[in-house]
Amino acid sequence: MKTTIIRIFLSIILFIVTFFICAHIISLSRDYNLWGFGALLGFILIFSIDALCIKKLTKLFPSKWVIYASLFAVIFYAFANLPSLKFAMKVFPTILSLALGVLAAAVFATDQIKNRYRYTFLLFLFPFVLNLNLYDTWVHYIEFGNTSGQVTDEISVDFKVTDQEGRSITNGDLKGKIVLMDFWFIGCAPCWKKFPELQQLHEQYQHQPEVAIYAVNRPMSSDHPGQAFESIRKKGYDFKVLQGTQKVMDDFGVYVYPTVVVINKEGNMVFMGQLDKAKDVVEALLQK
């Protein structure tokens, strides 16, 4: 009876620790640059903790209890805390990496399994490869429906945004220009990380009237009037900021931030993705 109580207690502790690791790793998904790293880090953390428990606490905490507790924590987190099916699809490689961490620990710590080191290494390869920019490609495909950012069906989106003086700007006003729109919101940390690159792009094309570059703000309930414009100026950026609406975001199909859209001179959206690839699209359009 005493042994059973100890095992239940240790299982609960391991469940909580694994659940906390899952939550921390998934929180890294706020930054595109950390998707692959998060999957690899989660695998290593869970593998290390579970392998240690199996090796050092065998008598009190049998390996099957360790595996069940950790695996249940990963599955429970996946079903209880992922906000949408689309987000679940984006982080599926991470969830799979966490589960593989549990499996790898079980294989590594079981002396009876032949070639256990080889199998552990093979399981490790999945999160390792994800960290080599493969995750970025997966997320881009889930989010934008492509891996390159090029929009197959060029569409024209009717929109109306406002500048700092309250003047309206519509898609019709921008016909004849190559337009790059960087969609963001004030609390978006990855957005701020990309703004130095947006500033460089603005400086590169600011004297070319055929190119228009904007940071289009998504309003949040916590924002005060004019905060989007003030926050950009306080950071020393001088690219143009426009105030959008939720309707604008929905019409463009923007649900992750930052998202960059490029519109050609005919007013059609030809790119949706990240700023790095959008630069090449703008340059290609200028050469036409």
Strand content: 5-15%
Given helix and strand content, the structural type is: alpha/beta
H/E series: HHHHHEEEEHEHEHEEH
- Unreliable stretches: none
User: What's the shape?
Assistant: elongated
**Secondary structure: helix percent:** 55-70%
How many angstroms does the end-to-end distance come to? 79 Å
- Mean pLDDT across all residues, rounded? 86
Largest sheet: 6 strands, mixed
Written overview of the protein:
This protein has 288 residues and is an alpha/beta fold. It has helices at 2-27, 35-56, 63-81, 85-108, 116-144, 189-205, 227-234, 246-252, 275-287; strands spanning 150-155, 160-162, 168-170, 178-184, 211-217, 240-243, 259-263, 269-273. The protein has a 6-stranded mixed sheet with strand order 1-8-7-4-5-6. A hairpin with a 5-residue loop joins strand 2 and strand 3. It starts with a helix and ends with a helix.
In short:
With 288 residues, the protein is α/β, with parallel strands linked by helices.
Provide key terms for this protein.
two-stranded antiparallel sheet; 9 helices; elongated; single chain; alpha/beta
Write the layout of secondary structure elements.
Elements: H1 2-27, H2 35-56, H3 63-81, H4 85-108, H5 116-144, E1 150-155, E2 160-162, E3 168-170, E4 178-184, H6 189-205, E5 211-217, H7 227-234, E6 240-243, H8 246-252, E7 259-263, E8 269-273, H9 275-287
Parallel strand pairs: 4-5, 5-6
Antiparallel strand pairs: 1-8, 2-3, 4-7, 7-8
